[in-house]
Amino acid sequence: MKIARVETFILHVPVTGGNIADSMHAISHWGMPGAVVHTEDGRSGYGFAGTHAHLPTDRLITGFIAETAAPLLIGQSLDGTADVERLWSTVYHFPPAQWVGRSGITHLGLAALDIALWDLIAKDAGVPLWRLLERRTDPPPLEAYDTDGGWLHLSEAQIVANCRRAVEERGFHGVKIKVGKPDLAEDLRRVAAVRRAVGPEVKFMVDANGKWDLGTALAADPFLAEHDVFWVEEPLWYDDLEAHRRLAEAARVPIALGEQLYSEYDFRNFIGAGAVGFVQPDVTRLGGISEWLRVADRAHEAGLPVAAHAGDMAQIHVQTCLAHPACAILEHIPWTRDCFEEPMTVRDGVFVRPEAPGAGTTFRPGILERYGR
Ligand code: 0YR
Ligand code: MG
Predict the structure, then answer these.
(1) Is 309 a catalytic residue?
(2) Which terminal residue of the chain has fewer beta carbons within 10 Å of its beta carbon, N or C?
(3) CB of 331 closer than 6 A to ligand 1?
(4) Residue 132 CB neighbours (<10 A)
(5) Relative to the alpha carbon of 232, which ligand is closest?
(6) What global pTM score does this model have?
(7) Are 72 and 91 in contact (CB under 8 A)?
(8) pLDDT tens digit string along 45-81?
(9) Sequence ranges of the domains in the chain
(10) Is residue 178 flagged as an active site residue?
(11) How far apart are CA 258 and CA 278, in angstroms?
């Protein structure tokens, strides 16, 4: 195949219930700035990043794709995984881009393109991406845990009802709620109420989205441990490696993080310092599937489980997690599921294996028009 053309798009898809909030963000839509990569023989690969649907910012990402990265790809050949890695490196190491951003917007743009390239070669091979990645051939069941009922703006009664329904009616074996209320005591009451409601068997996680300081996280830890919280996610400001290291040393509940880290090197620093227990790489932030695999390999070498962050809100991480031996559990947030030809599906608490060729990123007809901005 030869790359002929790169078309960009920005989709804004409504979130469940019209609005959600965590400790840092309140949003009404999930943003998907992305790209369709067309080949000379008429095939197309789809890829996108995940954002909070702020149009001016999304345009910076599609601007990077269209004006900086696409010209590096057009005319290049694409016949297998070695080509994807070569093209990834071409964009990643393009000196003017590297000078302005080894993280952030450039990486979200690169992610969209990398995912589209993987989509193309998996389609060309006639297999779903997880089969192409071949880190393991017969994956065990990939457990789903639900995040979509535990938002911070919901009342205690609402999160209790949502988590109970996720477990009793929808088959999930795990749930996560947001923490980071102004008053820690309120967070802890919510933790106790949800644990009581779901019973002792269910995996139960909390996510502070970077809101707490070290003192608050240390104060919360004994209570979280008593309520058998499986991990505490992003307890502290994302980049503060030293504070995470100190918390990990002192706390009983393991730390999960990674949804705001941009490169293999970021992860290497956290893993090397013993500052992370559950590794949460996100293809949409890391510059795509290529770098995600390197992070997962590194976590696996260090003996750490990978519990990816679902920044695609759809099928891509089902593919990468099925393929990787470090993965046994994955976050479920279904905001964009209905956009795709083969929607992500959970049955009896596990993700159904995708079977359609590609990365699972091909949109249903009409979606680009319906949600396009
Ligand atoms: C909303 N999952 C997360 C959403 C979610 C965020 O800001 O992006 O809560 O992605 O932390 O673990
Ligand atoms: Mg999170």
Answers:
(1) yes
(2) C
(3) yes
(4) 21
(5) 2
(6) 0.97
(7) yes
(8) 999 999 999 999 999 999 999 999 999 999 999 999 9
(9) 3-127, 132-351
(10) yes
(11) 9
